[in-house]
Amino acid sequence: MRRTLVIIVSILVSAVFLVLALRDVPLAEVWSNIQQANPVWIIISLFSVLAGNWTRAVRWNGLLDFKIPHMQAVHMMNITFLLNQLPLRAGEVARSLLATRSGVPFVTAATSVVVERMIDTLFVVIVLTFAVSQLPTAPESITRIAGLFGIAVIVAFIVLIFFARYPGVGHKTLELVQRILPFLKRLPLAKLLDNVLEGLKPLTRWRSGVHAVVWSLISWAFSFFTFYCLQRALNIPELDPNVNPLLMSFLGVGLAAFSIAIPFTAAGIGPFELAVSEAGRAAGMQPNLATSLGFLFHGVNIIGYAIWGGISLLAMGVSLSELMNAPKEAPEGTS
Asked: How far apart are the first and last CA of the chain?
């Protein structure tokens, strides 16, 4: 009953966002644009999706001190992205459980996933801050606010890493803030701080920290390249020469990354397309091209995850049904 309810809600949420994405662009026109897309650039983008997963596997394995054989880590990452197309992103839990096959404790693997999310969130915020500041139509006040917000996020992340290295300082700082603002004592901030600092511990070590940052940059570069390939597939640089393809890649990928944070959707369908469409409109792209790009980008990602994830399921000898039940098998008290 619960699973059926989740599926129904996910379909409804996706439908609402799809209506918003297609509010002034006929679906037939979107489909026509996609049918005319250059297949060579689409094939290149599919391999770019694989390269992105491969580099993310390298980053993840580094956070685990390379305890997992490299190809096994790649297969686990491919399976993660396949299962993440389901509501509530079940792939992350499945990956942590698969890691236990290589002798990695579930909690350790789950913590490494949290570190990944923190790094990716920081990176996306920085990219979006830069992209918004470069929009030709952005008011100066918005540009200034975006810049200050980006700096604030970077500073906050550095402070958290410092606290992870010296947790005593972090707790003393929290106690000071709670003395100034007594009402904060009602919230479980100490426990929350411990959880965050525990997740950031790998970044306090020079080797693992540099490894995570470098491979994050490489993996996101492949995401931007995938998006650029699909702009070329739709011939957008020629049809809409006023749009900066690189800026559009930053803005489109960044907003799409935030859109998948909405848990109750069918494979992220709806919010993803709307995010890319709005990014295109903000960058001055023709609405029909922006919406078509959103559908094509999401479609290539889903197809890519299905192909590479399916191959990895066969390589690891696990079934999809087994992994779909992974959240139920997770040890209690872990996340």
From this structure: 23
Q: What's the whole-number average pLDDT of the chain? A: 85
Q: Give domain limits for the chain.
A: 39-137+211-265+283-289+297-329
- Whole-number Å distance between alpha carbons of 113 and 260: 16
Distance separating alpha carbons of residues 233 and 106, to the nearest angstrom: 41
Question: What's CA 228's distance to the chain center, in Å?
Answer: 17
pLDDT surpasses 90 at 331: no
Token pair, residue 285, equals 């792209």
* Number of neighbours of residue 272 by Cβ within 10 angstroms: 28
Spatial neighbors of 245 by CB under 8 A, at least 6 apart, are 228, 231, 232, 236, 237
293-307, pLDDT tens digit by residue?
A: 999 999 999 999 999
329 confidence band (pLDDT: 50, 70, 90): low
Residue whose structure tokens are 């191959």: 311
> Is the CB of residue 242 less than 8 Å from the CB of residue 211?
no
Q: What is the full DSSP assignment across 233-254?
A: HTTHHHHSTTS-HHHHHHHHHH
* Nearest alpha carbon to residue 230 among 159, 160, 279: 279
CA 275 to chain centre: 13
The secondary structure of residue 204, as a DSSP letter, is: G
Nearest-angstrom CA–CA distance, 268 and 288:
21
Q: Per 3-state DSSP, what percentage of the chain is helix, strand, and coil (rounded to 5)?
A: 80, 0, 20
- CB distance 293 to 236 below 8 Å: yes
Instruction: Using CB atoms within 10 Å of the CB of residue 171, give its burial: 0 to 12 exposed, 13 to 18 middle, 19+ buried.
Output: middle
